[in-house]
Every structure is written in structure tokens, then in C-alpha cells.
Design goal:
Blueprint: H1 2-20, E1 30-35, H2 38-52, E2 56-62, E3 73-78, H3 83-93, E4 96-101, H4 104-114, H5 133-136, H6 143-156, E5 161-168, E6 174-180, E7 192-197, H7 205-223, H8 225-231, E8 235-239, H9 244-252, H10 313-325, E9 329-337, E10 341-344, H11 357-375, E11 380-383, H12 384-388, H13 396-403, E12 408-414, H14 436-455, H15 459-467, H16 473-499
Parallel strand pairs: 7-8, 7-9, 9-12, 10-11
Antiparallel strand pairs: 1-3, 1-4, 2-3, 5-6, 6-8, 10-12
Helix pairs in contact: 2-3, 7-8, 7-14, 11-14, 11-16
The structure holds zinc ion (ZN).
Pfam family, one: Propep_M14
Protein name: Peptidase M14 domain-containing protein
Cofactor: Zn(2+)
Length: about 500
């Protein structure tokens, strides 16, 4: 009893210190999973969220089957001030809901404790490059530690890696990407794969997965002939933390911060832009909508798209770099959380698919199959807009596909819970660090599969070319269309259906 009391006193003292130091706390906040059934319930939920304004944060939305309003699932963070109204309305309307996270502040503290480091205290662990992933990758790392690790790698492996500062962030922090290549000095640039993570600050699992992939490629190069073969043909650019200011802020001040940290002219209290609504493709497209909050003009919104396209300096730096290397970047991958999803354009619309939809689907299905073989987990796969039933303009995956013609553009929503899950383990952004390695192992395998297809020119295309090699180009197109419509489409649809 005495020890429980002293623990409460300590927690109370921590609370007071956090209040005084401006750290954002989430006492009394809950995360609800709401499953409206039918259009009436769905629009009631939309109204609830609109009325709730800044007391509600949408963590995840999926409309499932789409237009008929069935199968929708929303996960929302609700402040204590509005919680009673939300709960009584849901109950009155008979809308099914679960409390996913009962005590948000406690879950935040639990994640930090499981990570072995309180936010005040820098980890005393040394960053050892040779310990393998069992130790390094069982923790989330701060921005400074990630940089330290990257720079150490580039120093240790000068013939295989190059650390590139894409530019300085709004708060003047370097944004480091690493190039992994066996021909760093080669002027004839080989095909390359770009991977970025940490666009949204609170999605800590994503930078961790990027670090794991870097580690595996570098250490695999000297010990695994497959990796050696892979790296003899393709270069990798990996940017583990894109939104560096937001990421730092999520460690020091507000664990659930999502946006950048730039101020918004005209808004005294609300800073930051959602960098994944800020890209110059269907920027704030008003026709892009689902439940109606997929991009926003309100600087206080978590999905604020920014004053104009590329208003964020981080977006401009990455765009400049990719523009300069677009000719040889053949695949683009952006890592987000959460959802256990592997998706491709379009994101801006629920109604259209991109011109190379079947190639994208073919490679995605191959990735998903190989990912499933790792731990048995199945990533839901499809066009972002069509599959999720809502659309957003200004996203990087659409922009890279359209504006830089990177044909293989994919967005992962990493899992928000362990594979074998009880409800209490669905911690979403607050996933305990023991999930880093299993998730990373899956994504690493998916990336290898993607690389093999990119190198091979995609097996599907090769087969098609072989079939029609002696025919005219007009006939080629017809045969290609036949293969698309009659052979590949039913296969893809059948696989989708079996996974629903
Ligand atoms: Zn995200």
C-alpha cells in the first residue's frame, strides 16, 4: 500500500513538472473505435466529429465497403470534456463502439517506460553498429540518436553508404537520407528505390522500420549473397525521419503531434501543416472527400494542408532531391502507421485508378504474398481512395507517381497492433517497442520483393513482352488489354475478394 502511495505521489509530481514544462498531457482522454452501420449512423458520426472540432482527433478512418455505409470503422481520440456527449449520442443512436484505449496518458507513459527511457532522460545505451537487430531495433530512438547512428554507419562503410543532408528543416535541423550503393562513384546512375518514413511525427514505428531496413541491407551485404546481388543492381535512398521538427516535438512535448512545426500566418495558436496533404497534386481538391475531413483549411486541424502547395520547407527539400534523381528512382515507398495496409495511387479520388494500375497491383500482390510468409500477417492491398472509401489530395504517393513519374509508388500503413492481438494490445501510435522487429522483418521482405520486380522490369511485363514479341504494336496493345482484362483482372479481384 505504501509503495502504491509513493508511486502515486511520484506520478503526481511528474504530472506537475510536465504541466510546468509545457508538456502536453492526455489525462482522461480515450480512444474509441466506432462502427457505424448504414448511412444514417455514418452521417450521425460525421456530425458528431464536426461538432466536436478540436476535442476530437481522427486516428484512423476506413469506410470498408464504401458507398452503402456498411463496414465503416473509425478510431477517434476524444477529450474528457466532450466524452460524455459522444458516448451518450452513440448509445442513443445504437452505434456500436469499443473503448480501444481507456487511459491515453497511461498508454503514453507505458510506451516510454517499455522503451527504457523517460522523455526527460537520454538513453545511456551506446549505439553499437555490430550488435545486430536484436538489441538496436528493440527500441524507438530520438532524432539525435538516429542521426548519430546514420553518420556512424556512413563513416564505417564509406564504400557502401553516403549520408546526404537534404537541407535544413524549419527549425534548422538537418534532414538526413542515406544512400546505399555499391557504385557510389559511378556517374551512370543505376535504378534506385526511395523509402521515406516519419512524415507524420507520432508514427514512431515508421522511422524504426526504416532503420531496420538500412541495417539489414548494410550488414547483409557482407554476409548474404542475395543482398550482395541485389545491391549490385539497385541503389537505395532511405530517409528515416522526414518531419524532423515534428518528430523531435513528439518526444519532447506532445507525444501525439502529427504535423510539421512551422507557424501559420493568421493563426496565433495553431502551428504546423500536415506534410502529407502539402504536395502539389490535387492540393486541397474539394472533390476529394469521404467523411469530409480528409484535408483542411483550418490551421488548427491535424490534417491542415498548408497555405499553398509545398509551403513546407521539408517538402521542398525532398522534392528538389527527388526531382534531381527522378530519372533513376524507379520505386517510391512511404512508411506510415497505422492500418496494416499496402496501397498505391490514386489517393485523391475514390473513383479512378492510375494508368499503370495492374502493374502496381501485380507487384503489390507479390509483396503481400512474401510479407505474409514472414509472420502470417496479411496486409490489405489496393488503391488508396477506392479501398478506403475516402480520398485526400496533396499526398506524396500520388505526387511521386504523377509529377515525377515514379511508376511503382506505394504507401504502407504499418500495423497498429501485434499480430496475435488482444484488444488491450491495440496501442496504435503507442505500440510497445517489442513490435518493431516483427513489423520490420515483414516490411524488409516486402521491399526486397519490390526491388526484385523493379530490377526484373516486373515479371508480368516480361511475360507479356515474350508472348507478343513477334506481333505488331497495335496487336501488342490488344493482347496486352486482353491479358489485363481477361487474365489479370479476375485474378486480382479473386484475391481481393478472398481477403475481405
Ligand atoms: Zn502517416
Amino acid at each position: 500500500m505504501a509503495s502504491k502511495r509513493s508511486l502515486l505521489i511520484i506520478l503526481g509530481v511528474i504530472g506537475v513538472i510536465e504541466c510546468l514544462s509545457g508538456i502536453v498531457r492526455y489525462d482522461g482522454y480515450k480512444v474509441l473505435r466506432i462502427q457505424p452501420s448504414g448511412l444514417d449512423q455514418q452521417s450521425a458520426v460525421v456530425n458528431l466529429i464536426r461538432d466536436g472540432q478540436h476535442e476530437i482527433d481522427v486516428w484512423s478512418e476506413m469506410s470498408g465497403e464504401g458507398l452503402d455505409g456498411t463496414g465503416s470503422t473509425l478510431e477517434i481520440q476524444v477529450s474528457p470534456s466532450i466524452l460524455p456527449t459522444i458516448l451518450s449520442t452513440l448509445e442513443k443512436m445504437g452505434i456500436h463502439y469499443d473503448v480501444l484505449i481507456d487511459d491515453l496518458q497511461k498508454s503514453i507513459e507505458e510506451q516510454l517506460q517499455a522503451n527504457g527511457m523517460h522523455r526527460y532522460k537520454r538513453s545511456a545505451d551506446s549505439i553499437n553498429l555490430t550488435t545486430g537487430y536484436s538489441t538496436f531495433h528493440d527500441k524507438y530512438w530520438r532524432y539525435e540518436e538516429i542521426n548519430e547512428w546514420l553518420l556512424k554507419i556512413c563513416k564505417t562503410y564509406p564504400n557502401l553508404t553516403e549520408c546526404i543532408n537534404l537541407g535544413m528543416s524549419y527549425e534548422n535541423r538537418p534532414i538526413y537520407a542515406i544512400k546505399i550503393s555499391t557504385s557510389l562513384d559511378d556517374a551512370t546512375k543505376r535504378q534506385a528505390i526511395w523509402i521515406d518514413a516519419g512524415m507524420h511525427a507520432r508514427e514512431w514505428i515508421a522511422p524504426s522500420v526504416a532503420l531496420f531496413i538500412i541495417d539489414q541491407l548494410i550488414h547483409g551485404y557482407s554476409s548474404n549473397s542475395n543482398i550482395e546481388e541485389l545491391l549490385s543492381q539497385v541503389d537505395f535512398y532511405i530517409l528515416p525521419v522526414f518531419n524532423v521538427d515534428g518528430y523531435v516535438y513528439s518526444w519532447t512535448t506532445d507525444r501525439l503531434w502529427r504535423k510539421t512545426r512551422s507557424p501559420n500566418p493568421g493563426s496565433k495558436n495553431c502551428s504546423g501543416t500536415d506534410p502529407n496533404r502539402n504536395w502539389d497534386f490535387h492540393f486541397y481538391d474539394e472533390t476529394a472527400s469521404g467523411f469530409g475531413w480528409t484535408a483542411a483549411t483550418d490551421p488548427c486541424a491535424n490534417i491542415y494542408q498548408g497555405a499553398e502547395p509545398h509551403s513546407e520547407i521539408e517538402v521542398r527539400h525532398m522534392d528538389d532531391f527527388i526531382q534531381a534523381h527522378a530519372k533513376h528512382i524507379k520505386a517510391y515507398v512511404t512508411l506510415h502507421s497505422y492500418g496494416t495496409l499496402l496501397m498505391w495511387p490514386w489517393c485523391f479520388t475514390t473513383k479512378q485508378v492510375p494508368p499503370t494500375n495492374y502493374d502496381l497491383a501485380y507487384v503489390a500482390l507479390a509483396m503481400r504474398g512474401d510479407i505474409k510468409n514472414v509472420h502470417g500477417r496479411i496486409y490489405r492491398t489496393g488503391n488508396i481512395g477506392k479501398m478506403l472509401g475516402f480520398a485526400s489530395g496533396g499526398t506524396s504517393v500520388d505526387y511521386m507517381y504523377n509529377n515525377h513519374s515514379i511508376k511503382y509508388s506505394y504507401a504502407f500503413e504499418l500495423p497498429g497492433g501485434p499480430f496475435v492481438m488482444g484488444q488491450s494490445q491495440l496501442k496504435r501510435f503507442l505500440l510497445p517497442p517489442e513490435n518493431i522487429v516483427p513489423i520490420s522483418e515483414e516490411i524488409y521482405v516486402g521491399i526486397k520483393t519490390l526491388a526484385e520486380h523493379v530490377i526484373g522490369g516486373v515479371k508480368y511485363n516480361l511475360t507479356m513482352t515474350a508472348t507478343v514479341a513477334t506481333t505488331s504494336s497495335a496487336t501488342n496493345e490488344k493482347i496486352g488489354l486482353f491479358i489485363h482484362v481477361c487474365l489479370i483482372l479476375p485474378l486480382v479481384l479473386a484475391v481481393f475478394r478472398s481477403l475481405r
